TrEMBL record:
Organism superkingdom: Eukaryota
Alphabetical list of SUPFAM superfamilies matching this protein: PLC-like phosphodiesterases (SSF51695)
Membrane topology note: Multi-pass membrane protein
Gene: Gdpd2
One BP annotation, GO: lipid metabolic process
This protein's name: GDPD2 inositolphosphodiesterase
Cell compartment(s), UniProt: Membrane
Matches recorded under PANTHER family: GLYCEROPHOSPHOINOSITOL INOSITOLPHOSPHODIESTERASE GDPD2, GLYCEROPHOSPHORYL DIESTER PHOSPHODIESTERASE
GO MF entries: glycerophosphodiester phosphodiesterase activity
Keywords from the named record: Glycoprotein, Hydrolase, Membrane, Transmembrane, Transmembrane helix
Family: Belongs to the glycerophosphoryl diester phosphodiesterase family.
Organism: Certhia brachydactyla (short-toed tree-creeper)
Amino acid sequence: MADPPVCCSTCATCLLCPYSCQWITAKKEKRKGLRTTKYDCSWFLFLLCVFLFTLVWLYFSIIILNDFHNFNEFIFRQKKLWLDWSLVLLIATAVLISYSSVLLVLALCLQLCGQPLKLHWVHKILLILTALVVAAAFTGLGIKWAEEWKSARISLQATGPFLHIGAVGGMTLLAWPLASFIYRTCNTGLKVILLLVYCAVMIALYLAPLGITSPCIMEENQLPPKPALVGHRGAPMLAPENTLMSLHKAVDCNVQVFETDIMVSADGVPFLMHDEELTRTTNVQAVFPERAALNSTAFNWTDLQQLDAGSWFLERQPFPTVHSLSPGDRKEAAKQRIPSLEQALEAAKQSNISIMFDLRPENHSDYQNFVNVTLGVILQSGIPLQQVLWLPDGFREDVKQQAPGVQHIYGRKRLENEKEPVLHVNLPYQDMSSEEIRQYRQDNISVNLYVVNQPWLFSVLWCSGVSSVTTNACQVLKEMKHPIWLLPSSTYLMIWIVADCVSFLIIIWAFFLMKKCSHRRRPAESETDVLLTKINSLMQD
């Protein structure tokens, strides 16, 4: 396929050894007449595909970090094992992408040096395994966590312009080994196919910005106000979730709403708890081992007050931020107990923040009584009713009649024929597009999206005009004074044109230099061929 090697013996040896797993010098390789065959080219294409496949998975891995705490909780509920699986994901992905990247770089360097692409069988097996592992990861994501596909689409609004520039840069650099191969191969058909494919890809990349949209491509004076912060179970990165300490830490982060979950004990006391079982966030297995698997509502308030609701936070460290807690915060966290709704309402009233909650479990046979008991505690607490944001859909009409001042938050989009206007909605961030957020904002409908932890996602929703976001990372988002990036359309247009023009000039330069180098080699190669022909004739005579 390609002409004999032209680079120095040392370079050839250094490149061939890790790629082909054989210590062979350039001279020995030349004597053996090793050349890159069509079979070798097919493995190079497979290597390129595996690299791109793994690169896409790396992108997905970074995107789903926003929601990975939910995955950790899911695994705990299934296996009763707590581990930060995001570290496992990132380490495994880093190993796969590093391996395929190194092989691809070696292959491109070998091609530039004119060396044969003899991929060792061990690498072939490992590449197949890499492809299978990544394919299994994508399949599992699609089956068990399908909403993350929507997250990926949203992420493109934040990364699209930069991915475009990166793709143009990568394909531009690929022009050098491509030109080297084209000027050294004798297969005209292969030359034409490669050039057509490369030109088609480059044209598509040059025109890609026509299809790239992002809410952050706007003028500075068009930027909506910064979204308000809603503390998801308080400030769960700084304190045990759904505790008074978590509420106070959320207040320190300037959140406007404390979001929590309410359950009602067996003797009718509403308390803060997210899970239906107590095993994840308390020491119930040590205090009541025979009752640990029971629903939280099966315990009376006296039993619940005996449980430690803070030590698990220090032991399991659900977030990396636990490492940075001060000794005082650690001591306070270890003392936390399950708070009642009455205690939470009093703390919210004193801190002058709103409280938003779900009432669980929705399928309980005594759910109507849960609603009545919860509403009774709210009315007796003395908190201004406009600071209470009511999420539960069950018996909502009764709540409106008994406590008309309570603000009602709907976990759905508005309907065409609403009997009463919907003023507040609370939805997963994947369920609303930027266009819908803008429309709701124009119609004076408050939109709260959950759970938003990463600055890139917060930036996209900020540019879209969302009213508020529910977050685990209030201490991070409160420090953001501006979206990560904001570009006027004219500036983005200039960047697009300059990047495409520079890329085009570099590609032309690469092909020109490679052609010039190939012309310089041909006279020497011709003289060598004549000499070898004469020697062969003499030997035959």
